[in-house]
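INFO batch 0412 | record 1 of 1 | parsing
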Amino acid sequence: MTGLSVPALDLDALDFTKGGGLVTVVAQDAQSGAVLMVAHADREALEYTLRTGEMHYRSRSRGLWHKGATSGNVQRVVSLATDCDGDAVLARIAPAGPACHTGATSCFGEAALAADAIGAVDATIAQRQATTGHGDTPPSHTQRLLADRNLRLKKLGEEAVELATACVDGDAARAAEEVADLVYHALVALRATGGTLDDVRRVLAARAR
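INFO prediction complete | emitting tokens
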């Protein structure tokens, strides 16, 4: 590793004394925004983080800790930022694997992975797809769309036209509703092709760079 390709963290701006030599580090997936874990770091751990471009922490039980050194689930640093009090760091990372020692993606479970509204919608679509054809209950609207290519493409086109109409009319409230409808139907159509919201996030992240 050659170090960070982002502005270096100003370690002198951090207040290590408040936490007995440690600051709290919140590790957030830079792509999805999901909170993956919370740990602590001292000055030495953050110096290693800046030097290697991968997250290092300080554990009261294991000492200096390079995340993923044993498991391979390293966390490449995208950016580091301090909070307003200087006693916490937000680490936006690109994880190579699960953050939690249990093997879960996030230490906070599935709720953290669908913390934003669009993520929650995508998670619901995935759940509907996984349960299609199971049980005796009638299929949901999402399941009907997933099962019928012509129906979902028809709905996708209708929502796009309705959004365009709302924009022509200058109706911001209706346009917002139509965007929400279009996003939902687009995610269903994407899921039917085998794609996911994470694929879209990767494309956007690459374009942002």
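INFO post-check: The mean pLDDT is 90.
INFO record closed
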